[in-house]
Design brief:
CATH topology: Rossmann fold
Helix content: 25-40%
CATH superfamily: P-loop containing nucleotide triphosphate hydrolases
Strand order of the largest sheet: 3-4-2-5-1-6-7-10
Order of helices and strands: EHEHEEHEHEHEEEHEHHH
Strand content: 15-25%
CATH architecture: 3-Layer(aba) Sandwich
Radius of gyration: 18 Å
Shape: globular
């Protein structure tokens, strides 16, 4: 287990562009609003986005905490660590797989987390080096899969679920993002990316739909602006959905703890 962390939750998607990082940051902030001590580890080495979403300024670096150790930064009441805190984010990370996996392992093992109930790991898309490194190095308590209702996204979400099953990580549920678009002018709602996909995949894999999120301008603007919806609009319907998701995740983690350890990993 990682020192200072009770539970690790990976937030993943089979493909990019489904809003995984936005879901991760809002889910983490919602869990903090529910009273838990929460951290985020941005595992997307090539395209870290949590620094901007949490409103951490460019060039802000973590403090050292002894040799080869560093303290996470704090933003909106949660602890955070990201590759964006280490490098110039305008420069591309032109790295091969082993270097990426090595950088992720350093973020994972050299961050001094302060008594977290939950550490949410914002995974890069796909089923590659980082996912394998995570599964081999630490006991992950659960995974949350983010998808849109679109058939192409669901195809990749299935791969994500299968991958976590292969490494004995329980899938806590599916988040269906961009499930409905409501016109801000006339109020007409339309399922732009299709509908019912989240329920279908949850039924197929005997997991649950944690929640459905609308495709709205505000969610995107608030995350881009460094004040995600849960912080920017604490009384909104979207925030209520995220808080409900956070409660479901916390309840499943608590059930696991009551049952005792059931996950084993091998190299």
């Amino acid at each position: 287990m990682i020192e200072g962390v009770k539970h690790i939750v990976a937030v993943a998607s089979g493909k990019g562009g489904v809003g995984k990082s936005t879901v991760t940051v809002n889910l983490a902030l919602a869990a903090a609003a529910e009273g838990y001590r929460v951290g985020i580890l941005d595992a997307d080495i090539h395209g870290p986005s949590q620094a901007q979403m949490l409103g951490v300024g460019e060039g802000v670096r973590p403090q050292a905490a002894g040799e080869n150790r560093m303290r996470p930064l704090e933003a909106h009441g949660i602890q955070a660590m990201s590759m964006a805190f280490m490098v110039d984010i305008r420069e591309p990370m032109v790295w091969r797989g082993p270097m990426v996996a090595g950088a992720f392992q350093q973020l994972l093992t050299q961050t001094v987390w302060d008594d977290l109930d939950m550490l949410f790991i914002d995974m890069p898309p796909g089923t590659g080096d980082i996912q394998l490194t995570l599964a081999q190095k630490v006991p992950v308590n659960g995974a949350v899969i983010v998808t849109t209702p679109q058939d192409i996204a669901l195809l990749d979400a299935r791969k994500g679920i299968e991958m976590f099953r292969k490494v004995n990580v329980p899938v806590l549920g599916v988040v269906e993002n961009m499930s409905l678009h409501v016109c801000s002018n006339c109020g007409h709602s339309e399922p732009i990316f299709g509908e019912g996909g989240g329920e279908r995949i949850a039924g197929e894999y005997e997991t649950r739909v944690l929640g459905q999120l609308p495709l709205t301008l505000a969610i995107r603007e608030q995350a881009d602006g460094g004040r995600p919806t849960v912080v920017a609009e604490p009384q909104s319907e979207v925030t209520a959905t995220f808080r409900d998701m956070a409660r479901q995740v916390a309840a499943q983690l608590a059930d696991q703890s009551a049952e005792g350890p059931s996950i084993s990993f091998s190299e």
